[in-house]
Amino acid sequence: MVSLFGLVPETNLGYPAASMGVVGILFTAASIRTVLASVAATRARLRQAGLIVLLLSIFGAELICGGLVIAGINPEIAMHLIGYALCTSILVGVARAWEMVSDRDTGLVASLATLVEHKP
Length: 120
Prior knowledge:
The protein is mostly helical. It has helices spanning 2-6, 14-37, 42-71, 75-100, 108-117.
């Protein structure tokens, strides 16, 4: 969403970044509740904890940097950090999508090994 708002001319990117940061943090809080309520194995919980830390970092960066852009405090640096947070968010989303189709190991080495082993 932040990227889409960034395409609109003369938009202060701070407002959508801060808004999506708040929404993302609330989403992550709901995820924490779900993880705590689940009966998953310890290893699965640890993976989820890592994801939660990563999501809180991404959404926290969006929120803080969005506030900096709105306040006019180092807006150029804050905009770059928002861009990096968005790129990281997309990478996390792609990795999570692969997990949802049951390809659990989404690392680069495992992905390359799968491509090399697969012969048409």
